[in-house]
Design goal:
β6 and β7 form a beta hairpin. A 7-stranded mixed beta sheet has the order 1-2-3-6-7-11-10. The chain has one domain: 3-Layer(aba) Sandwich (Trna Endonuclease, Chain: A, domain 1), CATH 3.40.1350. The radius of gyration is 16 Å and the shape is globular. The protein has 3 helices and 11 strands. By secondary structure, the protein is α+β, with helices and mostly antiparallel strands.
Length: about 180
Amino acid sequence: MSNKGYGFEHEIERALMDVCNQTPDMQLSQRTYRVPTSGAMRGEKGDIRTRFPWDSKQWMIECKARRQKSVKGSYIRLEKAWFKKCEEEAKEVGMIPVLAFSFKGKTKNRIWFIFWKSMLPSCINSDYSSLEARFNNKSVTIHSNKICGDLENGFSLEYMGETFICLPLQRVLSTLRTVLNG
């Protein structure tokens, strides 16, 4: 069993726990947690499961951290299968699917969350400019240097007949803090 995404998963787990004032010594049923063996156990799918105290609809997060570079800079190739797997597994357990990815090696806006617009949590805004990305029948490629200006705060992406909302982790955390502090 590979643990290549272990640190990335824990970074997201800690950030979401911090925003909700949760601690690792709390029972798993009361806090956001990293799924042991990254979803390989029956009934425990995904990499991270949230426990937001203000919402009955929780998130199942699938994490993808990759270091891919070209002469144009860093990029990530998001596989079509990842979207399908995340959506299917989240639906099975009645959770909101979220795909998290990282531009390894970047410092600003390194971690991004992808939400299905059709299943967008009520606290997340859906009005963002569209990103032009490279598509093929197996994946979509997002270059980090294309995410600048207005797109730094989030963007929408059309893929597989679906609209996705992509937000940097810091924006998601800021939104969650606003919800928590009412």
